[in-house]
């Protein structure tokens, strides 16, 4: 009886592992591919990175990640909680690394929010996985909404993220506004651990909204 019970448990475990590996293969294969480096100023490449689907009428569009993959491969533990608000997660790209692990960029969008600091907040997540789908490391790299603006450069040995924080008492797009700006350097170890290697001191600068480019620009 014990042998039969053990056999059933082993069969069930084997079936679960095969299903999990199949799900992870489908999940990871839906990310796009890129060649490094990618500068923050290469807007066409970043449009492709953040919009992995294509519509003949609307052009490039975000490619949403199915809920079951979010639950199994992104929102595990306390890293994110989709029940605390309405979020959307989109496929971006795999970042070329060594053959020991996968590293991917995921776009995260929060609809609404508790304050203007997190209202309609967009983030780019960096996640590394083992070849079988276990998460090795996760970081939120950037923030973007009316209060935040980021620019990311992908290099072969590091990721540079410039972050702007609009510190004006009230956002008036027609006026020049104060801000803080800093740059964070991320690297991935040979085992897939994401490390913060350097953070520049915050600078107090000024920004103005550019209607044509639909983003803030630094004012000298």
Tell me what the structure shows.
- It is a single chain.
- Helix content is 20%, strand content 41%.
- With 220 residues, the protein is an alpha+beta fold.
- It has one domain.
- The strands form 3 sheets. Strands 8, 9, 10, 11, 12 and 13 form a 6-stranded antiparallel beta sheet that branches. The chain has a 5-stranded mixed beta sheet with strand order 1-4-5-6-7, covered by helices on one side.
- A hairpin with a 4-residue loop joins strand 12 (203-210) and strand 13.
- The protein is globular, with a radius of gyration of 20 Å.
- The model is unreliable at 5-19 (pLDDT under 50).
Task: List the secondary-structure elements in sequence, H or E.
Answer: HEHEEHEEEEEEEEEE
Integer count of domains: 1
- Low-pLDDT runs of 5+ residues are 5-19
Which class of secondary structure composition applies to the elements?
alpha+beta
Count every beta strand, where a strand is a DSSP E run of 2 or more residues. Answer: 13
Question: Into which percentage range does the β-strand content fall?
Answer: 35-45%
What is the tally of helical segments? 3
Oligomer: single chain
Over all CA atoms, what is the radius of gyration? 20 Å
Distance between the termini: 79 Å
Range of helix content = 10-25%
Mean pLDDT: 89
Largest sheet geometry: 6 strands, antiparallel
The geometry reads as globular
């Amino acid at each position: 009886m014990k042998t039969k019970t053990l056999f059933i448990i082993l069969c069930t475990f084997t079936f679960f592992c095969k299903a999990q590996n199949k799900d992870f293969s489908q999940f990871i294969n839906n990310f796009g591919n890129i060649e490094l480096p990618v500068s923050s100023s290469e807007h066409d490449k970043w449009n492709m990175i953040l919009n992995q689907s294509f519509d003949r009428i609307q052009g490039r569009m975000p490619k949403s990640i199915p809920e079951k993959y979010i639950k199994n491969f992104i929102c595990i533990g306390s890293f994110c909680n989709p029940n605390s608000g309405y979020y959307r997660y989109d496929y971006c790209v795999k970042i070329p690394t060594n053959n020991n692990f996968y590293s991917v960029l995921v776009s995260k969008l929060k609809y609404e929010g508790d304050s203007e600091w997190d209202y309609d907040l967009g983030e780019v997540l960096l996640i590394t996985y083992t070849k079988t789908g276990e998460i090795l490391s996760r970081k939120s790299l950037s923030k973007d909404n009316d209060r935040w603006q980021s620019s990311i450069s992908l290099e072969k040995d590091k990721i540079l993220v410039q972050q702007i924080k609009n510190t004006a008492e009230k956002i008036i797009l027609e006026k020049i506004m104060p801000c803080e700006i800093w740059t964070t350097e991320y690297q991935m170890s040979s085992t897939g651990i994401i490390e913060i290697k350097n953070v520049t001191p915050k600078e107090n600068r000024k920004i103005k909204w550019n209607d044509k480019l639909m983003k803030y620009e630094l004012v000298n």
